[in-house]
Every structure is written in structure tokens, then in C-alpha cells.
Specification:
Blueprint: E1 5-11, H1 14-25, E2 31-34, E3 37-43, E4 46-52, E5 62-65, H2 69-79, E6 95-101, E7 107-113, H3 116-126
Parallel strand pairs: 1-4, 5-7
Antiparallel strand pairs: 2-3, 3-4, 6-7
């Protein structure tokens, strides 16, 4: 039975990496067990680890669900100076999405449900609530 998950990205400068991910995620880490390592619980049971080390080529993208992909894109272009990235959609796919990279080359993506009722149902399910 799988009940939790973690994913890890690596940065060559932990101080700058932690600061960058704090801005990306709009908060401080939930857990810093030792130097060179920080973790955020993104949703219950889903952890992002940022570790100091050599970046793994070809990893990702780590895709994060957003309720407003355009607003989040604009915020990160302004606050983190990321390169502008295209937002895609296809008729057969229920989300729109876009991908960018952190300063260390880790690929990160956002996605947003096109059907806002479905989005709210997913949020409620993840939070363990039954009302919509």
C-alpha cells in the first residue's frame, strides 16, 4: 500500500536554493533535519525535498496543480525572474499546463484544471472533505 510520496530536487547552493523554493512555494520549509536539506509538505502526504548536491540531468518536470496558472506564472516571472513560459492546452486534456526551470536546471511545471467544479472536487478529496 502506497500512502505517501516524496520527490527531490537538487541545488548546488543550498542557501540560494532554499530561498528560491521558499518564494516558489510562498512559505518556509516544514522540516529541516540537517544542513543541506529542506522539506515542504505540499499537500497531505506529498513532500518536496530540496537537497544540496549535483543536479540530475533529465529529471522532472515536477508538476504542481494551481488554481490560477496565469497569476502564478506572472508572480514567478516578477519575483524569481524566471523566463516566460508558454501555457498549453489540448481539447482531449482536462488541464492546461506550462513548464519552466529553476536556476539549477530542475524542471518544474504547473497545471490548472479547465473544469473548475472538477478542480474543487479534487481539492476537497485531497483535503479529506466530502462537501463541495
Amino acid at each position: 500500500m502506497i500512502f505517501e510520496m516524496t520527490t527531490q530536487v537538487r541545488v548546488t547552493d543550498m542557501k540560494e536554493g532554499q530561498k528560491w523554493y521558499e518564494t516558489l512555494l510562498n512559505r518556509k520549509p516544514d522540516f529541516i533535519p540537517h544542513n543541506g536539506f529542506a522539506e515542504w509538505e505540499l499537500i497531505p502526504g506529498c513532500w518536496l525535498q530540496v537537497a544540496e548536491g549535483h543536479v540530475t540531468e533529465g529529471n522532472g518536470p515536477l508538476r504542481l496543480g494551481m488554481t490560477d496558472i496565469e497569476a502564478e506564472k506572472d508572480r514567478l516571472i516578477k519575483e524569481l525572474k524566471i523566463d516566460n513560459f508558454e501555457i498549453y492546452s489540448r481539447p482531449e486534456v482536462p488541464v492546461k499546463w506550462g513548464t519552466f526551470s529553476d536556476p539549477w536546471g530542475n524542471r518544474i511545471g504547473f497545471f490548472e484544471y479547465l473544469n473548475k467544479r472538477e478542480e474543487q472536487e479534487r481539492i476537497q478529496t485531497i483535503l479529506g472533505r466530502t462537501e463541495v
